[in-house]
Amino acid sequence: MxxxxxxxxxxxxxxxxxxxxxxxxxxxxxxxxxMEVLYGHAxxxxxxxxGDVTFHGLDGTEVTRYNVSWGFVExxxxxxxxxxxxALIPSAIDVPRAKEQRERGEALWxxxxxxxxxxxxxxxxxxxxxxxxxxxxSKG
Length: 140
Hints:
By secondary structure, the chain is α+β, with helices and mostly antiparallel strands. It has two domains: 3-88, Sandwich (ATP Synthase, domain 1), CATH 2.60.15; 93-138. It contains two helices and eight strands. Strands 1, 2, 3, 4, 5, 6, 7 and 8 form an eight-stranded mixed beta sheet that branches. Strand 1 and strand 2 form a beta hairpin. The chain is globular and about 55 Å long.
């Protein structure tokens, strides 16, 4: 792929800039589902969900992944900026802690009663934990 057709990508957490480079494509979890961004994509803003951000062709590597939980993404034709609450490479995920998080979410679900907000929060906690566990299991 020619350098001119690469998209500029930035992945930022409150603590640091994790990625600031170019890539052939970026796959990311929006709250409405996964999307892929290529150079020339139409502009958009979206809420980031829990799951893996996958960079294709980043820094000479075939695939680079980070597990993210919540944030925002801004897509412009020549760049993607991902502002994530947190981001980890799959091998850095604490699996026992993610399992505890899933159990905590299941407990919240069981205690939600008639509160729609409590069910939404329980689903968010469970989904985030399951995304971490899936990412850690694949480690690629």
